[in-house]
Amino acid sequence: MKLTQYFSKLLTESVNLNATRLGDLDTRVSRITEALKAASSLDGRVLDTVPQGSWAHETIIRPAAELEFDADFLVQLSEDAAWNENPRSYANAVWSALSDHNIYGGMSSKKDRCVRVTYSNDCHIDIITYVVMSNGRQVIVNRNTNEFEDTNPVGFSEWIQEKDRLTNGNLRKVIRLLKYLRDHQGAFRLKSVLLTTLVGNIVDNWRDHDGDYYKDVPTTLLHLVEDLDRWMQAQWSKPPLVDPSCPMTSFDHRWTDSQFAAFRDRIHDLAPKIRNAFDAPTVDESIAAWQKVFGTAFPGSVATATTASASGAIKSADVRRAPKEQFIEEMFPVQLTETVTITCDVSPPHDLNRVQRRALRSGAGHVPKRRDLYFAVDGTTVNGPFVVYWKVRNSGFEAEKNRSLRGEITRDAGQRRKKESTLYAGQHYVECYVVKDGICVARSREPVVII
What we know:
Blueprint: H1 4-15, H2 19-38, E1 46-52, H3 53-57, E2 69-77, H4 81-84, H5 88-99, E3 108-110, E4 115-119, E5 123-132, E6 138-142, E7 147-150, H6 153-166, H7 171-185, H8 192-202, H9 217-233, E8 242-243, E9 246-250, H10 257-279, H11 283-294, E10 340-346, H12 354-361, E11 366-367, E12 372-380, E13 387-393, H13 397-401, E14 406-411, E15 417-421, E16 426-436, E17 439-450
Parallel strand pairs: 2-5, 11-17
Antiparallel strand pairs: 1-2, 3-4, 4-5, 5-6, 6-7, 8-9, 10-12, 12-15, 13-14, 13-16, 16-17
């Protein structure tokens, strides 16, 4: 059996990184960024920061006991013709900025492609030096080889977003579940970028025509693992694996033939266990079978699960109600029979080139401070007439300190658009509601992470 509510509880209570830690991460990145911008070794060269990896892709998970979680971000420096002759100069300047800092000096260590800032018994943050050349080439710096390496971090985030859309928003949840199996259950060993790329590659466009193939989390988990198993069983040796957003960049150096073979065998063992749990005829048999996959963290009941209510509202123990916050359920009956999609465009600084502008507009929900955001209703299945409402909810230390958590619900003036500004670091969101005949029939949320 699928037990979708049980999976919601598993994700919320055992897999997902909790909101408090995410808020701490946002604050830490913001403070590191401020230190970099103030550093004399960088002399005003810091243009922006770009989240990367599981943090940017929303596949970060809760760490196993006594282990750290990690996050990556790129610090974008302005191009320097002299430094281009010696790429290590960029990376050394970032290292100097952090190693000489009165706080981060004792927390920083030098790696080939990053500077790692480690927070005791909690997490570490990897800061990667990133440059967008005048010709549009995007590179990071390998300090060890003193070379530029091609990259496309925003392109990778866009690729994940598109694959997630094809799976009805379930791909990222499945990747988190697979990471949980790796980190907490020892089901296999594989670097996150390889796992994300392999599973994302398995998502097929033509499956989008079958509305049930990626219908929910357990169904998507079953199909992606079985499809991955079939594909891997047909590979006799480690297959070529390239960055889907940057074809000139290969991931082949990140694993060996023996590591591939071990992963292939573990997935082959895992697939029938998931099928057995999915096909179990009773709830009790299914729970027992799923617990053989996920361990005792898989819930035995959903009596206290954090799940979507019948109205569609999501409750979370990590999120307190803001002083002025309103909820659409308290204003209108909610019957989500229709859909609405919203888009967000970001105003770039005038001095950025075309590639940089595109990167900001497609920042996978992550934007820097002092930008204007333009939200708009992109489409809806609701036939007019109807009324649009908006909600902006801030979170994090800065917003709370300035008494700007917000959360009020306001009626759209008729343009179906909303302009906001990025002021406070943290994980925020904007929600849009469509109300027809006094009933909320559609809603959509756009996350905004300000760094």
